[in-house]
Amino acid sequence: MYTILVVDDEPNYLVVISELLREEGFEVFTAENGEDGLKAVRENDLDLVITDMQMPGMSGLDLLKSLKAHSKDLPVIMITAFGEVQKAVEAMQSGAFNFLTKPFNNDELVVNIRKAIEHYSIIKENQRLRNEVRSRFSFASIVGKNERMLQIYHLIEKVAPTTASVLISGESGTGKELVARAIHLNSPRENAPFITVNCAALPENLLESELFGHEKGAFTGAASLRKGRFELADSGTIFLDEIGDIPLALQSKLLRVLQEKTFERVGGTKTLTVDVRVVAATNKDLKDEVEKGNFREDLYYRLNVVQVYLPPLRERIDDLPLLTSHFIDKYSKTLNKPKLEVSSEAVRFLTTLPWEGNVRELENTIERAAILCVDNRIEPEDVQPVSMPNEQPDRWSNEIDFDSLIPTGVDLPDVLNGIEKKMVRRALETADYVQARAAENLGITKSLLQYKMKKYGLQVRKG
What we know:
With about 475 residues, the protein is of the alpha/beta class. The protein has helices at about 10-25, 35-45, 60-70, 85-95, 105-135, 145-160, 175-185, 205-210, 230, 250-260, 285-290, 295-305, 320-335, 345-350, 360-370, 395-400, 400-405, 410-430, 435-440, 445-455; strands at about 5, 25-30, 50, 75-80, 100, 165-170, 195-200, 235-240, 260-265, 270-275, 275-280, 305-310, 340, 375-380. The protein is built from 20 helices and 14 strands.
C-alpha cells in the first residue's frame, strides 16, 4: 500500500482529500501546517507529499525546500490557487513533481498521484539494484586474506579514485571482471555506466562495430544507426576483457580513443568525443605478444599505466576455505537451503585439487555440490571434479598388500602425495622429460603435470 501525506491548513479540505485517497487504496497521513508535515515525513516512510502552497507559518514552498533537503527523491505535488502561477513555477524549479491549480477534479488529482508514485518507485528500484550491485562487486565480494590479495585490495583503493588506465592480468577464472567492477564502483564514476566487452568473443568486423558503433548502411545488415560500447560508456568505465585478442587492425583505433578520446563510427565521418576510463584484462603475457608482433607496443604502455596481477587459486590455496564458506553462504540463499554446510573432510579434499579454472571453477564445484548433496551437507564425494568419477578401485589395487607397504599411522594425504610424486617422476623419466608425453601417459593435462612438478619440486632435466 502506498503512503501519502497531505498538508493543508484547512481541516475540511484535509478530510475530503483523505477520504478520496483512502477510497483509491492509499494509506493517508495529514498535517495542518508545514512544521507538522515535516515532522510526519521524518517519522514515516512516505511515497508522496501533497501540500498547499499558501499556509500560515511555513509556506508550502518552504516545506518543499525542506523536504528536498531531507529526501531529494520524494515526490511533492503542490496545490496552488488561481493566479499563483509564478509561485508554481518557482516550486517546479525547486524540485516539485507537479502542481495543480484549484479548483481541480478528483480524476486529475488521482492521475497525477499515480504518475508521481510510479516515478518514485522506479527511482527506489534503481537505487535498490545499484546497492545490490555495489554489495556484490565491492571489495567485500573479492574474498581472500592471502598476503598477495591484501596487496591487491590496497592497490585498488589507490588507483580507483584516479582516471588512470588499468591492466588486469591473470589466468581465466581468477576474478578479473570482479576487480574491474570494484575499481569502477569505488571511483567518482560509480553512478555512470560500466560497460563490458569480450574482445575474444567476436570476429574483427563485428568487434569494430561493437566497440565504435556504425552508421545506417555502413555494411550489409546495418539497417539503422547503432551506438557502440564507447558511446554507451561515456562518462563511465569500459571493461575490455581479453584485450590480447583484439586484432592489430583495430589496435590503432583503440589507441586513438585512449590518447585523444575521439573516434568515428563504422561508415561515418563525424568525429565523436567521449570521456571513458578504460580497464582492460588479459590472460596472455602482453609483453610477450608485443615481442611477437601481435600487439602494439604503444598501446600496451597506454593500457598498462597501472597493472593488477591476480594470482591463480593454487598460489593462494590458504584462501580456499574462506572462498568455500563464501560460496556456501551464497548458494544457501539462492538455492533456498539455509542449513547447507560443508564437511571439513570436503574442504581438505578441495585443497588438494589443482584448480586450473581457479575461483570460477571452485564456485561451479560448490554450486553443483550444493544441488546434489544429501541432507544439505557437502562431503568429499560431492566435490570431486567431473573428470574424476567416484568409481570402484581398479582390479590392480586389489592385488597389492597395502598392510605391508604402508606403515600404520600414516595419514591418507601423505600416502597419496607420496605415490603421486613417484608416479610423476617415473612418467617424466620414461618420457625422457618430454612433458606432453609424460602428461599423456599419466592421463592428465600438461598444465596439471607442470603444477604437480612444481608441487613436488621435480625440475625439468637439464641437458
